[in-house]
Write a structure and sequence with these properties.
Structural class of chain B: alpha+beta
Radius of gyration of chain A: 24 Å
Keywords (chain A): Repeat, WD repeat
Structural class of chain A: mainly beta
Number of helices of chain B: 29
WD repeats (chain A): 37-77, 103-125, 313-346
Largest sheet of chain B: 6 strands, mixed
Distance between the termini of chain A: 70 Å
Shape of chain B: elongated
Protein name (chain A): WD repeat domain 41
Strand order of the largest sheet of chain B: 9-10-8-11-12-14
InterPro entries (chain A): WD40/YVTN_repeat-like_dom_sf, WD40_PAC1, WD40_repeat_CS, WD40_repeat_dom_sf, WD40_rpt, WDR41
Organism (chain A): Cyprinus carpio carpio
Largest sheet of chain A: 6 strands, mixed
Helix content of chain B: 40-55%
Number of strands of chain A: 34
Oligomer: heterodimer
Chain lengths: 449, 821
């Protein structure tokens, strides 16, 4: 068991160049075009990709909107839920040899609905549930889906309840992941409960197998890493990597951020290394690396080597809400501060190399005040193999917390926010070329060439 | 932009001759053709001796007091004749007055033969204007006439219905009385026979009126065969269609009665006396009563439009017509910096031009309908028009009419008196041009006569008295053709000045209208128009292009002189380019030229500010004082590409924090700096979106924006410019922007730089695009301008002129610097 005290006294500012504010010159940021989508009347919390072209958004207004990512058109507004949406997922099944993608939504009004995104119709609906559903999990292999609230329910495609567990604590199930051999891991407050789905003929039964009570505080994040591992993160910064098969702890990290020593002249020198615990709100993984949103910082961990790869104590001005690890060693994070930031894992410079100062040039009276005023310092990494997390771009548009984002690769990036808006960020150069092609296509159609 | 008046004014005949060999000169079809005129002829001489300085429109009635005898029951009634309007040109070269005269007939139950002949005349001192713009005038006045006639038919039908009610009521009363007489005095008493006769008369009258009603209501269905009429009907506002419905139903007498009863249930019938009152006591209906108020006001509006269209010098009208014709070919790019065109009018003018298409020579438009004795059109001497036709061939100075002694006398009579009855036309048989002439210059004060004076701004719709500008009124001079003589001058010096102006430096001939000009040029338009599938004026010849656009441009050009004056004298005025919902006109843009010129002289960082606007980066003008901010917005809005018809992309004064979506639609924002909490949230939004905006701080005289390197904008905004006048500077800017647009057009529509060689060819396209712009000689910053304009062109082309609700917003990540004065 390791305790990571990141940004400790010795390692203060070790791998963090102070240039958190990247400035206006962002050559690596290709998002030079944006499209603002209006339609929601309250906080937008969920984005779900339907196919290459479409996605759904939902939030506290109970509305589910289906959008075209290329044009930014709102295709359908699905209205039925009277209260906020608590969970949404896509549900792909085979019907008549073709794969259909439907949309599952759960709301605080204690209803579950299945929508057809091609017609905008509600296909199925269940109301008067005993409790509102907090999370949904589709088991494609078994063609069933699970809803987690105060109890765990198993449903088939036709919205028929197959089985359910007995009443749980008030906290209920906040997250679920699928494990091999028809096991399910569910996060319930401080515990992870392992359920087993028993299939006998057409009947399905569910039973709790094990309670893993290693976390000291509420679990906020539970993710699938690869076939052999899953991870959980708690309110006090505990990150546990579990074995998917025998549910043993593979790795335990307690991430502690050191309170920044704001002023060297401070009178509170006696206790300069106050360690503070930060909640792990979100995690994502590509099978090898995990990125965890810890407070307003980011933490990248390699599950194979069981070592920290990079971290940034203050990656945002406020809590990080969502993270994504991309294929090319880049990652993205969004935060309550209203921005999306793009990061690149870079090897640390050699010790002899002079530290490059970040760009602070702000002109005029409207300069953005930089949070970090201390001199940039890059010291020798105390952990071998430690890399730095360099900011390569940020997206500023929302005026409220960015709740989530969804990447459509070259088609763009969708963000949703507390300010009721969605923004599609696009590669301006690519869009310009696509428009040129559209122009020539129209010229050809009109025979004006 | 093209064919601007300045170009005309500075073109010498010699230069023009040389230019044919010059490979760099304009293609022939874009040049302004010169009229083969007598050498050294002063283009202003022919108008110099007129007793009025401005064109005006006169509406007059051929009044005969005696003829309005009413129509007592029992007397013979005539059949209604639906007479086509007739259009003639009349002239009085001695007076220096020439007129396009449009005759029409309105129906009035109280008039003799139920008809009241009217004429609307456009009177100008410029004979050639009347002759050459005949078709345009004709279509304009036809439209006005249609409004009048449509309203009149409705009013006449109403009147008839009321009259019928009266008659029915009278009949029932008489019937009772007859029965009573029979009862009391026996069937053959004198009283009973008298009553019976009276009853028979009423019966006959009812029959006649029903017949009249049938005739008038059957009119639209007959006319509907005419294409133009149908189109006209459909475009007239809602109330018209209602009327049409009521008129349109092929009434049997009964349906008329029932329908009218339900509709006019509030009307109480009155008893009609056997013998009508003395007809002379009756007050004649005013034109407004004759034509139903809403149609009357529509007519006035239309006349205003006509007046604006043909105001000013002929060469100005031609120039703007050429300008417009050329611009219509540029629909792909014209939205960027040109004043938005009202495309709706393109359709309407088409409707009317059809009717006026055939007679290229202004002769009587003899309709196919049989003309009755009442029709005055037959009486006009056809020969009389012939000199006018000849004069087109090369005797422009000649008279178009034979001036009789009577004419000149009549014309000399001073204007304020009312028309004496001995001059009136007793019968149309004796009608002569001279008496018609007398009508023009006679300020008839009869209520039924309406004149739209040149000062058409007083379009209150009330009946106006003909205005004369002979008593030293200030008249904005049609100065666009003179060298920079902006401003007001008194009309007396006008003549002298005009004569001074036509020295060697000024071309002493005016451009020829496209209609009568180079046939090749004209042909080109016809071909081009029909070839362009996208063009709104598809398949129209030039003469069919709408008059409204001419109107808009002409009035703006002319009144620019005024506005320039006011802008320069009261420079501290917080002039805003836009009031909400008002169109951003060329006039406003030209006015802004002056403000822009001052801005460039005053602020050394003007180039950077203009660069921001041209490259699509929103410029926020921040200041405490609303007037100062609005003034700067006013100075800069001419540089905003795709300004929009109503200047939608500019927000001249905003006192609340702006949102992200605001940056998407507004490219120039005037923002209030305030100490209030709202003010601090404004500053917060400025701070937050600082990467998307440039900020011009009025109070501290600073500009925070990305740097600009290049020569393009410095040509556009040179603070040492020799240009003195706002309107000249505006034209300079327009010229530069046109060059820029041409490059953007080239960049947008060059195949080889945009089309990928294979599927995964994004990179090479990017580099080809960049190289192309570098080869055009643009710096990195200037490339951004061209790229932005190109994106606008592409979006406009793909989506059409209808603005997509969900436009993308492009930006760059570039460092900003702070510029100080």
């Amino acid at each position: 068991m390791l305790r990571w005290i990141l940004g400790g006294r010795e390692a203060q500012g070790t791998v963090e160049s102070a240039a958190l504010f990247i400035g206006e010159e962002q050559p690596k940021n290709c998002f030079t075009e944006m499209q603002v989508l209006k339609g929601h009347f309250d906080i937008v919390r969920f984005l779900v990709q339907i196919d290459d072209l479409r996605f759904a958004s939902a939030g506290d207004d109970g509305l589910v909107l289906i959008w075209n990512v290329e044009t930014g058109d709102c295709l359908f507004a699905l209205r039925c839920h009277t209260q906020q949406i608590t969970a949404m997922t896509s549900y792909t099944f085979i019907r008549g040899g073709n794969a259909h993608t439907a949309l599952l939504t759960a709301s605080s009004d204690r209803t579950l609905s299945l929508w057809d995104p091609d017609s905008g119709n509600r296909v199925q609906n269940i109301s008067d549930l005993q409790s509102s559903v907090k999370c949904l999990l589709v088991l494609v292999r078994l063609d069933v889906w699970l809803s987690g609230g105060n109890e765990l329910c198993v449903w088939n495609r036709d919205f028929e309840l197959q089985c359910k567990t007995v009443h749980h604590s008030d906290a209920g199930i906040s997250a679920m992941v699928e494990l091999p051999k028809n096991f399910i891991a569910a996060a319930m407050d401080k515990e992870i409960v392992i359920f087993k789905l028993n299939l006998s003929g057409s009947d399905i039964a569910v039973m709790a197998m094990r309670h893993l009570a290693d976390h000291q505080d509420t679990i906020h994040s539970l993710i699938h890493i690869n076939d052999g591992l899953f991870a959980s993160g708690s309110h006090i910064g505990e990150l546990i990597i579990w074995d998917s098969v025998d549910w043993t702890i593979q790795s335990y990290e307690h991430i502690l951020w050191e309170e920044p020593a704001r002023d060297s002249q401070s009178e509170f020198r006696l206790n300069p290394q106050k360690q503070i615990e930060r909640s792990i709100q979100h995690m994502s993984s590509d099978g090898e690396y995990i990125v965890a949103a810890v407070g307003s910082g980011l933490y990248v961990y390699n599950v194979l080597t069981k070592s920290v790869v990079a971290y940034r104590r203050i990656a945002h001005d406020s809590n990080v809400l969502h993270t994504v690890l991309q294929q090319d060693g880049r990652l993205m994070s969004c935060s309550e501060d209203g921005s999306v930031r793009m990061w690149e894992l870079q090897d640390l410079p050699l010790p002899a190399e002079p530290a490059s100062s970040g760009f602070f040039g702000m002109f005029g009276t409207f300069g953005r005040s930089s949070k970090q005023t201390g001199p940039p310092a890059k010291k020798i990494p105390e952990v071998p193999g430690l890399r730095s997390l360099e900011l390569i771009g940020d997206l500023i548009g929302h005026s409220g917390a960015v709740q989530m984002f969804l990447s459509f690769k070259e088609k763009g990036l969708v963000t949703c926010s507390t300010d009721h808006l969605l923004i599609i960020w696009k590669d301006g150069e690519l869009q310009s070329q696509l428009r040129s092609l559209a122009v020539f296509q129209k010229l050809e159609e009109n025979q004006e060439l | 932009m093209i064919g601007s008046p300045d170009v005309v004014a500075f073109t010498k005949e010699d230069d023009f001759g040389d230019s044919f060999s010059d490979p760099c000169s304009l293609p022939e079809e874009f040049s302004v053709p010169l009229f083969a005129h007598a050498a050294n002829a002063n283009p202003w001489t022919k108008t110099s001796f007129a007793k009025f300085s401005r064109d005006f429109i006169l509406i007059s009635e051929f009044s005969e007091q005696a003829s309005f005898v009413g129509h007592p029951p029992g007397s013979n009634y005539p059949k209604l004749n639906f007479v086509e309007d007739s259009k003639v040109v009349l002239g009085d070269s001695k007076e220096g007055a020439f007129a396009y005269v449009h005759h029409l007939t309105l129906y009035d139950l109280e008039a003799r033969g139920f008809v009241r002949p009217f004429c609307m005349a456009y009177i100008s001192a410029d004979e050639r204007k009347i002759m050459h713009q005949f078709q345009e005038l004709s279509s304009g006045f036809s439209k006005a006439s249609e409004f009048l006639k449509l309203g009149n038919r409705k009013a006449f039908a109403n009147e008839l219905e009321k009259k019928l009610k009266d008659l029915e009521y009278t009949r029932s009363v008489l019937h009772k009385e007859t029965e009573l007489q029979k009862m009391n005095n026996g069937c053959y008493s004198t009283q009973a026979i008298e009553k019976a006769n009276e009853l028979a008369n009423v019966e006959k009258s009812i029959y006649e009126h029903k017949d009249l009603l049938r005739q008038i209501t059957s009119y639209p269905s007959r006319k509907r065969k005419d294409v133009d009429f149908v189109q006209h009907e459909t475009e007239t506002p809602g109330d018209t269609s209602v009327i049409d419905d009521t008129l349109n139903i092929n009434h049997s007498d009964k349906t008329v009665e029932t329908e009218s009863e339900s509709r006019k249930s509030s009307y109480t019938p009155q008893l009609i006396k056997g013998k009508s009152a003395k007809c002379f006591d009756k007050r004649l209906k005013t034109m407004e009563e004759l034509c139903n108020a809403s149609f009357f006001h529509q007519t006035l509006e239309q006349l205003n439009i006509i007046e604006k269209s043909f105001r000013g010098d002929l060469c100005l009208i031609y120039t703007s017509q050429i300008d417009r014709a050329l611009l219509s070919k540029q629909s792909v790019t014209s939205f960027l910096f040109e004043a938005e065109r009202d495309s709706e009018y393109g359709g309407t003018s088409k409707d009317f031009s059809i009717s006026s298409n055939n007679p290229t020579v202004p002769i009587l438009n003899l309709s196919g309908e049989p003309l009755s004795l009442e029709s005055y059109t037959t009486c006009i001497d056809v020969d009389h028009v012939k000199p006018g036709v000849e004069s087109m061939e090369g005797r422009p100075e000649s008279s178009t009419s034979d001036i009789t002694q009577e004419t000149s006398e009549a014309a000399d009579t001073e204007t304020k008196g009312s028309f004496s009855s001995d001059k009136s036309i007793e019968a149309f048989g004796g009608f002569s041009p001279s008496s018609l002439q007398a009508n023009y210059f006679d300020g008839l004060e009869r209520k039924s006569k309406v004149s739209i004076a040149s000062a058409s701004e007083n379009a209150s719709g009330s009946v106006a008295v003909p205005q004369r500008t002979s008593d030293g009124n200030l008249v904005p001079m049609d100065a666009a053709c003179c060298i920079g003589q902006d401003g007001f001058i008194f009309e007396e010096p006008l003549v002298e000045l005009a004569q001074e102006c036509c020295g060697d430096t000024v071309v002493n001939q005016e451009p020829l209208s496209l209609l009568h000009g180079d046939p090749a040029l004209q042909m080109d338009y016809i071909l081009e128009e029909s070839a362009l599938a996208e063009s709104p004026n598809m398949g129209l010849t030039f003469s069919e292009l709408n008059t409204e656009e001419v109107a808009k441009i002409t009035i703006e050009d002319v009144s620019d002189s005024t506005s320039f004056m006011s802008a320069s004298t009261s420079s501290d005025r917080a002039a805003s380019p836009f009031t909400y919902g008002s169109a951003s006109t060329l006039k406003k843009k030209k006015k802004a030229g002056h403000s822009a010129l001052r801005f460039i002289r005053q602020y050394p960082f003007a180039q950077q500010a203009i660069f921001c606007l041209l490259s699509g980066r929103t410029l926020v003008i921040l200041g405490v004082d609303e007037g100062t901010v609005r003034k700067l917005v006013n100075a800069l809005f001419i540089f905003v590409p795709n300004l929009g018809k109503y200047g939608e992309t500019v927000q001249p004064w905003l006192s609340s924090p702006f949102q992200l979506t605001d940056l998407q639609r507004w490219k120039l924002i005037g923002l209030q700096r305030a100490a209030s909490p709202a003010g601090s949230s404004i500053l917060h939004s400025l701070n937050r979106y600082s990467r998307y905006i440039s900020i011009l701080d009025c109070d501290n005289k600073t500009l925070r924006c990305p740097p600009y390197k290049g020569t393009l904008v410095s040509h556009l905004a040179d603070h040492r410019t020799q240009i003195k006048r706002g309107s000249t500077y505006f034209l300079h800017v327009q010229g530069m922007l046109t060059q820029l647009i041409a490059k953007a057009f080239l960049y947008t529509f060059c195949h080889h730089i945009h089309l990928p060689m294979d599927i995964n060819d994004q990179g090479s396209v990017t580099s080809r695009r960049t190289n192309f712009l570098l080869q055009l000689g643009y710096t990195v910053e200037e490339s951004k301008i061209v790229q932005y304009l190109s994106e606008l062109i592409k979006q406009h082309y793909i989506q059409g002129s209808s603005k997509g609700a969900n436009q993308s917003f492009c930006f760059n990540y570039t460092t900003s610097y702070l510029y100080k004065i």
